[in-house]
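SEQUENCE, STRUCTURE TOKENS:
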Amino acid sequence: MERSSNWYKLDNAAKIIPSTVRGANTRVFRISCELFEEIDPEILQRALDESIVEYPFFNCILRRGLFWYYLEDSNLSCTVEEEHLPPCAALYLPGKKSLLYRVFYYKRRISIEMFHVLADGTGAFMFFRRLVTRYLEIAHDFHVDGDFFASEISSLDEKNNDAFKHFYQNQKGLKQLNSLASNKAYQLHGDIDANNESHIVEACVSAKAFKSLAEKYNSTVGVLATSIYIAAIIDTMSTAQKKKPIVVSVPVNLRQYFQSYTARNFFGVISICFDPMDYDNTLQSIINVVNDSFKNQLDPARVNETMNSYAALEHNIAIKVVPLFIKDYVVGRFDAAAKKGVTTSISNMGVIKMPAEVRPFIERFSAFMTAAKEQITICSFRDKMVFGECSPFTNHPTMLNLCRRLTAEGIGVEISTNDYDVPVKERKVRESK
């Protein structure tokens, strides 16, 4: 990320985010870690103060420029608070000088919420893993082997780097972005929260059992999760609704394809399209299509196109000279049009690795990302695999069908929620105070 004096340019993915904040879609994501013990807020504050030193740009505030938004250094510092807001509440309020992340605790749970302008899930997890590790080091008076985080050791410049700009090649990226708006996908429906608050549901399953099920279908965890999610959506559709395709957006961590140590945004998106009319009442019929889509779109050449599609926005001369207030309007309209080409989104954060010394103190991790309609984020720790659904809807038929699909495959599901409409015997309410 380029820096001039006390301000930073936004990375290419972040440039459009402030213009796309609408209602419950605050563009805030949450990462949580649940321990086997109650949280000590004083120790958590100390751990935060020591961990944030490696990520000073997280203490920036967002400003409006003539042509682009930008981040500016601030003297603000984050104070740990007991959880008291709705999940993923807005962090960016135009005209207000405030940090773009918060750290909460509630009973045994530590949570960080972050505005997507600062980082993607991978970048935020880099910081969050350090925070949790440092908390447990202080709480239990031990030191983690420094070699564990050796692969993540990088300079501040490397953490700040705008990887999109670094790897950009002049390709027709904008045409790829425009193609998203040309699709007409099936849209999820539900009762929208009157206060534009997000509703979350957390479904926890055995990671080993899910991986075994993937092997049974000769598939991968990511492909199987996406396929079951599509099947759960089909279960909610009427016969007439099945005339439209289901399009699932899947974020891809570009650090797997380009060597980068950035803690900023560096992700692409692939689109998995399935025609419900091709569903023959077997999960395998969906898996075959999803598997082929993953293989084709995760080809390195296609991934490179995806990366360039984000970087192209900044490099387009016509866009560069347009004042920000016009950009806000145009990007907002484009975003609304593009959403018509997407049904939903599912993001797999993969297996969360933690130092051996702290693993016995941690029960699970979970993650949530706000969306205009619905998004599921998956992460695994030890034998806990968590599907985190976040949506503005007060009802959750797709998530319930996903759980029914899992139990039908012989996988037990434990559901936690901040809602009261999930009729599952094992359901436990995890309050958002």
Notes: The chain is about 30% helix and 20% strand. Confidence is low (pLDDT under 50) at residues 421-433. Residues 210 and 216 are 10 Å apart (CA to CA).
